[in-house]
Amino acid sequence: MATPIEKGRRSLNLTLRRELNLYANVRPCYSLPGYKTCYDDVNLITIRENTEGEYSGLEHQVVRGVVESHKIITRQASLRVAEYAFHYAKTHGRERVSAIHKANIMQKTDGLFLKCCCEVAEKIPLLFCVEYVNDNIEMGLQLVKNPALFDFLVMPNSYGDIISDLCAGLVGPLEG
């Protein structure tokens, strides 16, 4: 489903996510035998929190020529997606979960998300939790150069949008 740019309307995608409580966007990414791609051994899963972050739809014009967009991260939504992600990882035989964040820059929002992931990780001793700072270039390079470094990734909404598309590109084109 494409998200058209419409003035004064909330995205249909965002509305459906909220109304149907679609808080966890699960995207498995794996190589398929017989299809030639850059890698033949990709097997990872991304989960993105699907209702908050920069995609909350909270933006406005402050003054002419200046607009503002709000990134909303709540403890409730972060714990909910972290619990879902860690449970999913455990029940699907995954060994490590990478919490993708930029808490070094966005200390309050991404810091809260990371803290929630770490809290949940402490309750599930069989899984190893790894933090990855999403510097876009460094983390993306690691993912492209050696996807085997990653097993299972959980992240806020906008990072998940970009990283899951990048993962899809590892095993095939985004569009035909």
Protein model, in words:
Pfam families: Iso_dh. The protein is α/β, with parallel strands linked by helices and 176 residues long. It has one domain: Isopropylmalate Dehydrogenase. Strands 1-2-7-5-6 form a 5-stranded mixed sheet, with helices on both faces. Strands 3-4 form a two-stranded antiparallel ribbon. Helix 3 links the parallel strand 5 and strand 6. Helix 2 packs across helix 3. It is globular, with a radius of gyration of 17 Å.
Write the layout of secondary structure elements.
Layout: H1 12-19, E1 24-30, E2 43-49, E3 59-63, E4 66-69, H2 75-91, E5 96-101, H3 109-123, E6 128-133, H4 137-145, E7 152-155, H5 157-171
Helix pairs in contact: 2-3
Keywords: Oxidoreductase
Pfam family, one: Iso_dh
Organism: Brassica carinata
State the gist of this model.
Helices cover 36% and strands 22% of the residues.
Order of helices and strands: HEEEEHEHEHEH
Strand content: 15-25%
- Which strand order do you get reading across the main beta sheet? 1-2-7-5-6
The CATH architecture assignment turns out to be: 3-Layer(aba) Sandwich
Main sheet summary: 5 strands, mixed
CATH class: Alpha Beta
Morphology: globular
Q: How many structural domains can be distinguished in the coordinates?
A: 1
Please tally the β strands and state the result. Answer: 7
Uncertain runs are none
Radius of gyration: 17 Å
Helical content (DSSP H or I, runs of 4+) = 25-40%
CATH topology: Isopropylmalate Dehydrogenase
What structural class do helix, strand and pairing data support?
A: alpha/beta
How many DSSP helices? 5
Termini separation (Å)?
A: 15 Å
Averaging pLDDT over every residue, what do you get? 85
Question: What is the assigned CATH homologous superfamily?
Answer: Isopropylmalate Dehydrogenase
